[in-house]
Known about the structure:
- This protein is 62% helix and 8% strand.
- It has 152 residues and is mainly α.
- A 3-stranded parallel β-sheet has the order 1-2-3, with helices on both faces.
Amino acid sequence: MNRDQHLQVLKERVQMLRQLNDWADYLGPDASRASRGIFFILERFHLNHRAAFPHDSPDEIESIENELLLLGGKCVLLTVSSEIVEQRMQSRTPNEWKHKSKEDIRKSAEAFIQTQSELRRQAKLSVLPTIEINTDDKDWITYAGRLMDLLK
C-alpha cells in the first residue's frame, strides 16, 4: 500500500472504533466505561504506518493518534530479543523456513530486528502511551494479564 492508502485504512478503523464508542455512550452516561464495553487492543496499529513512512510529515498520523487517545487507546509493542529472532521466526512457520539457506534466514532476522528497532523509535515519537512486552518466554497468560492491567 502507498502512504495515502495506508492512512485511509487507519482512518476507517478509527471511524469504526468511534462508532462503537458512540454506541457505548448511547447506552447511558451512568455506566462506567468498562461496563459499557468499549475495550480494544491494536498491536502496532499506527506504529506500522510510522515505521513504513518515517520521513513523511507526521501530521496525519498524529491526528489519528489523538483520536485514538480520546477513545482511551494505548499501544502495545510485542518484541523478541535479537538473540532469538532466528529461532522464533522459524518456530512460527517451520515449513516456510525448511528450504531456506542460513544466509536467507540471517537476512530475514536482520530485517526483523531493524523493523523492531524502528517500531521502538516510532513508539517514542507517538502521542499514544506505549508498553513494550518482550515475548521471549512465550508466557501468553502473563502477557494477557499485562494487557488487562492497562484497563486500570
